[in-house]
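Forwarding these from the shared drive since the link keeps breaking.
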Amino acid sequence: MAEARLDTGHWLQSVLARPRFELFPAPDVVALAETVPLEIPLTLACLPRTGVDRVVDVAEDLARRGHQVIPHVPARAIRSAHELAEAVGRLKAAAITDVFVVGGDRSEAAGPYPDAASLLEQMCADGDAFDRVGVACYPEHHPFLDDRRLTESLRAKQAYASYMVSQICFDGAQIARWLRRMRAAGIELPLYVGVPGVVDLAYLLRIALRVGVGNSLRFLRKNSGMLRMIRGGRSFRPDRLLWDLNRALAAEDQQVAGIHLNTFNRVGATERWRLEHASGAGR
């Protein structure tokens, strides 16, 4: 996807023409994916309880159906070099050319890869590089790593990666400040901004607090009457966040490639919202 310039009032329509949808590999994931147009890339998260084999199985199935699939490959879940080679071989046989390499949610590595950089290094040494490789980044604090180590890690991964995808952050100005720091530190990877889709707000808050985005949650609570919305059973909609981000980065070309919609498998509601705004009806 061509990089989207954040300098016009039509930015939201532009990035929603072809965002990325993240799904969990739940039993109904294929049916959910069929509600999304084939031109929308689908990323498949690897949850600790599902494992890498399940992600590869679903990725193969969706690729056969014509979807552009970007499976997560979590370093700490890979048990051996043999398992890595097998997973890579299956994905390549399915004509999958883009993967998202992450450390993973496990507190301890199941095998020889404690982080994404070590897994990427192994893939490169084996000649198993994909056409495109994404890595994770964190505009807010990581639950286990300080900012200095996060920057060092991102710099190490940059040697192998094509782009980065941010953890969910609810504060557009915070994303902009972080991105400027990364550019000053020599991190040049294009950014896909991680944004929640249309998701039940109480559920989203539980997830966000678990992954350590408390600073922007306080921002959101102060600016949107969040407690009232939770009591009313409301869903989060990312309109305000995207327009705040547009305003925060409007004066600069910061290599923002697009948005990465974390649907939490609320695919139907997120796709309806996308179509509404992609057509201009939501403006």
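-- next protein --
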Amino acid sequence: MNLKYLKEGEMQRLKNAVSRLKDYYINDEVWIDEYFEEDQWLFSSRINVESFDLSIPNNENNYDLENTKQIYRSLKSLKPYQATEERIWAYLSHKKCWEYMRKRWPAENYLDGKDIKFRRNIHKRYFLSSKSKRALLRNGISRLWWFGYITYQEGENNPFRLTEIMLSKQDIAANITERNFSNNPKITKSLLTVLKNRENIGLKLPNRKVIREICKYLSHLGGVSLIDSLSRNELEGKIEDRINYLEKNKL
């Protein structure tokens, strides 16, 4: 099937009306068709995607890993520049993935009597606040695509092996995705490979402080040396040495 997206004018109309649509955003039923009535509010792109169904979060599991796999398998052909297109994520957040959004990012959590808080959070989770990577990590659906994009390994028996380790702990996911080096697959995948290899031989994953410090180290390393001149093995060796040093010093 071809990926759909909102028309620009209709998306802006919807976005501008958020503060007046609180009752819609706390409604479990999909309402966007009703909102636009007979208006032609959708385009169909030339981007071919596979059909997908997301696992619905509950009190025990948010299913971020499972849904990352679903979204990225379906939208793997999406290019990074296309992924900054707000109209794609606005459509998915309000239509195809509405049930998921209601459980994962319920709008009633933002109701505190202040329109500005409600509007700001709906814009962040159901639209894109900008074309930046940070905005992609805030939208409820595009964040799943981004998790897949920076970790997926084509050709591997388990192409989501590194996705699994990144999403195994919130500290790992947060520290990696919010650093600039996450745009560099070589650095991101080297770090996650080291963590996965350590796990495979029975070592505990580093604690929060070590994860934070190793990510700071990689940000610094990327700024002062030519990362591209290092092989993956050399980079992984530096990461392993740094983790051992940090753990030896009981950080």
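Residues 2-146 form one domain. The longest strand covers residues 42-48.

- D.
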